[in-house]
Every structure is written in structure tokens, then in C-alpha cells.
Amino acid sequence: MLKTKGTIKQSKPLFRGYFKHLRQYKAFDEVFNRTGKPKKHYQKVANFFSKMSKDEFLELNNHTKISFMYQGVTFTVYSEKEGIERIFPFDLFPRIITQREWEKIERGLVQRITALNLFLHDIYHDKKILKDRVIPYDLVLESPHYNKEMINLEPPGGVYTHVSGIDIIRHKDGEFYVLEDNLRSPSGVSYVLSNRSTMKKVLPNIFFHYEVSSVSDYPQQLLAMLKSVAPEGVDEPTCVVLTPGIYNSAYYEHTFLAHNMGVELVEGRDMFVDNNFVYMKTIYGPQKVDVIYRRVDDSFLDPLVFKPESLLGVPGIMAAYRAGNVTIVNAPGTGVADDKAIYAYVPQMIRYYLKEEPVLNNVPTYICDIEEDFNYVMDNMEKLVIKPVDESGGYGILIGAMATKEEIETYKNKIRRNRRKYIAQPIMTLSTHPTFIEESGKFEPRHIDLRTFLLYGKDFKYPLKGGLTRVALKKGSLIVNSSQGGGSKDTWVME
User: Fold this and answer.
1) Which one of 373, 407, 426 terminates a domain?
2) Is residue 486 part of a domain?
3) What's 399's domain CATH number?
4) I need a surface site. Which of 132, 200, 222, 374 has the fewest CB within 10 A?
5) pLDDT score for 205
6) In angstroms, rounded to a whole number, what is the distance separating the alpha carbons of residues 439 and 264?
7) Burial (0-12, 13-18, 19+ Cβ within 10 Å), 453
8) What are the two backbone dihedrals, phi and then psi, of residue 113, each rounded to the nearest 5 degrees?
9) CB hemisphere CA count around 414 (13 angstroms)
10) What pLDDT digit, counting tens, does each position of 252-274 carry?
């Protein structure tokens, strides 16, 4: 049996110096309290690693890398000139969320996505929330992701936000906050499943000392959701995953999900439209397609409607969609709801559509297109994080406290030229978690967040119990995105 009591002493090789580093972070640590004792739900796993020598841990770590290499679990880090494909960094010390904590997160996720779905239907139909001046007209209608092709179009099942990735942080006050909504084509769920599979293989003894909620049914739940929103009158829908191709940074995930659902992975060139129906080319002849889980951006989806030079989409697919003969997941135009300026109004959406108070709080947000907010941002940029409203992956962000005076002045000029493009938030102190750092050969505190995943279909809601805990591997960094060198952990939700 594993010993579960006591503190992690400084003499333990993998944790030597951990608490000295932790004092520098001044953050909420997920694993240890201020006296150095592991929190109750972490005692078994913390003591397990504390007994391990550096050589023993490195051997396990190498097994993990080999497992990921054989699975082909990769991602792309983009430099200025090229994209480099690498094995996804994975840390063996899992992040644990208690059942009580998860229940609140889950209620907040379902509430949030329900309100966002109602918002999307509203702004493409009656626009009541705009007419009632809850949200400024211009803020919505001038969003780069507001898709006029969706006006008065009723998506099958009335669902826009079929697959969502909501990013959550824990601040130094110990509370959870929603940092970002990702509603276009959120990625990362394949890493959740790969992490869990690897954890079971590499550390079966510690894994089975906990009652951990399963994540393995996600592909089956995803397929069930896709079928739930098939066009009316289709009893046995044909579903496919539409990928931009092998050079996309998330191509591993596209292949993973298609394989595990047992559906075809297709590119735009593999399909065509005839008489407002979508068909897939097969060796047996054309096969009608009913539901498309697309991982292609709106602007590349249909060259007859959007970018005419696009080779990634399917000519005529929007006409088939308008005719109700195919379902596109997520719906075109959904991106307006994950515009970072629109994000600031989600609490108001919840109150407006659901007549409820938000379960999960937003991070306070300043919209540079609003005069009062703009003036505050200009005067306090060194205390803020500045973000473009339409970028992802951690790109384009300025963290004022870490920027030079020249960088701040340059960014101020960017904002002045296009105020609609930027928002600002206070610097939130993401919680920390022990993470093995190869350069030091020890566990050190690193900032983490949590990307949660929720499936939303016709009479169908499925929050994945856990999600992708992302780690900022660089000391002191708040940027957790894998595209900029971040890693991940297995996320355990206790039963």
C-alpha cells in the first residue's frame, strides 16, 4: 500500500527546492498547501513520486516518450519561418479535480454553452439582445466572424455550438474563472485520450489507487452527437470528418477522431455537391454525406461563397446546408461567439436568456472599442494582458508586466489603429502544479490551465469529465499553448 500521510521533505530528490520556487510564484498550488503537505486528494500520488529516485523517474519518462512516438501523438510549433512537428510534451504528475469541484465546473459549462447557443440563434434571427441594448450592435455585426450567410438560416436541431472547448483557470484566490471560449473548431481532445491511455500503461499502480472518471467514451459520444443533428428524415446518417490535410497542425487529432468514431476522414477534394446534396467519392461510387464535422475555417469552406481561391472546402456546400440536406458541425458563423470582445458579455447573455446568475465567473475584460475601457488600457498597460480578439494559440498577446517600454508603446499604436481588434484583462495568476523539468532533473511549479470539452446536440449534452490540463513549461510563463512550447498533464476527475 502507498503511504498517504506527511509532508514532502526537502531531502526528496525530485522535490528538492520546490517550495523555494513556489514562494516566487505567489500562486495557488494545486497539490501542496502552505506547510508543504499534499492536499488530501493528492497524498497518494505525491508520496509515490517523492519516494522515486531521479533515475527511476527518467526511465518512466522515457517510456512515456516512446509510447507517444509510437502513437504518433504530435503537434506543430511555429517559428517565424516554418512549422516544426514534435512529440507532444507530457508530464507524468497528473492534475486531480475533486468531484465537488467538477460538479461546479460542469454546471457552469452547460449553462454557458446553452446561453451561447441561444445568443447565436438570436443574432442570426430576431436580434433581441441587440435591440434591448444588452450588447452593442456594432460589436456583434462588425465581428470578423459574423457570417451573413447564416442570417435567418435554421441549422438542423437548432444547434450552432456542437463541439466547444472552454478554457478555465484557477486564480490565486482559489476560484475558477473562464478565460476563453473556443467555439469554431477547438482542438486538444485527442491528447486527453492519448494522455490517459499512456498513463494507464506507464503508471498502472498509482492510477488504480484512485477512482478516476473515464474519458474513453468521448469518440462514441461525439458520433452520437453528430447523428443527433442529422437532417430530418435521415435515419442512418453518414458522418465524416473534414480536414484541411496533413499540413494542418491538428491533423493528428483529425485522424484520431475519425478512426475512433469509425467514420471517413476526408478532404474537400474527396467530396462534391450535386442538386444540393453532398456526396463523398468512394471506390463503389458516390455516397451521400449527411453530417460533416469540419476542421476547416469558415472562409475556406465553400469557394463559391467565401474565398474563391480555396482548395480546402467543397464548392456548393453552403447551398446544400441552406437547403437542409447536410449538417455542418460546428455551424458556420459560430466564431462570433468566441470573439474575445463578445466573451466579455457572456454573463449578461446568461442572465438575459436563462434568467440565472453565472456559475463560473469571467475574467474582468476591457474592450478597447469602448472609450472608457480604451482610456483605462492606455493608462495601465503594464498591469494588463492585451489580446487580439480573433487569434488563438497564444499568438499576438502582450503581457504588460513582462514587456519593455518600447514594446508597450508599439502595442499602444497597434490598438490606436484598430481598437475593435483588442481587449485587455488583468494579469491573472494561473495556479501552479509540480511539473518535471528535464534541465533541472526535478519537479518545479509551473502555471497550468484546463481546456474542457462539451458536446451539444439535439436533446444531447455531454461534458467530458476532465479535459486537457495545459502547462506553461517555461519558468514564470503564463502561455500554456502547445503551439508555443507548452505541455500537458492527464486530468483526473474523482468519482
Assistant:
1) 426
2) no
3) 3.30.1490.270
4) 132
5) 83
6) 42
7) buried
8) -70, -35
9) 16
10) 999 999 999 999 999 999 999 99
